[in-house]
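Changelog note: in this version the structure field was regenerated for every chain. One regenerated record is shown below for reference.
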Amino acid sequence: MSNGVLAVQRTIYWHREQGTAAPVDGWLGIAGERYSPGVREMTCRLGIDQAFIPARENLLRLAQLSISHTALAELVQREGRRAAGAMERGAYGPNWTPADCTDQTVATGADGVMVPLVTDEQKCKRRATEAEKRRKEARRSTARPGRPKSGSDGPYKEFKIVSFYDPDKAHKYAVGTSGDAAALGRRMRREARKVQLDQAEHKYSVTDGAEWIARQYDQQLPMLDEKILDYYHLRDHVIATSYVL
């Protein structure tokens, strides 16, 4: 559990043909899982903004949970794949509609962000450092047998994000993809359907004016009333124009 170790006595049922069942496990959210929902959420929150080694140390310090950084990485990646699968099946989506928003107004925005990745060279260095540490401490490797996973071919990769929100940001919903502009466009249209964007009284986009973003909005969300250039990029264009004049 996220607050430490919790001892639970539970009854386990067994049937010759149907196998084993432990009803309490479903109530605890650990049916077929090694970690509880609280632990899975906490590791994912730590893994969003930190490397897995400091995340592991913070988890031990804050929640008294000792999980190796490799197990933590596998847990976070597994939860990410599970969330992506839930989105593909339509099991995950916004919990609000334009009727819940101020003046039934919904804004949308899209952008590309650079995400740091671990390169293959960095992975090799980490494995060499860990091997030397194990040698000095006379420990055996706990890594799974087989070829180790390779790292990224570059230190950064661009992910594309689309968001939907109301003017006071009380309701927000965002999704992302590692695919190209067309992949984001398809996701943009699908998620707009979940938000019921076409039912909004007022609907507009606020972006940096990039051509690929404008093209996707034109193709995928033609029901938008306006397409607005955000303040910061407008300001930059005005300043650049002033230099020329």
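Spot check on this record: The mean pLDDT is 87. The first helix runs from residue 23 to 28.
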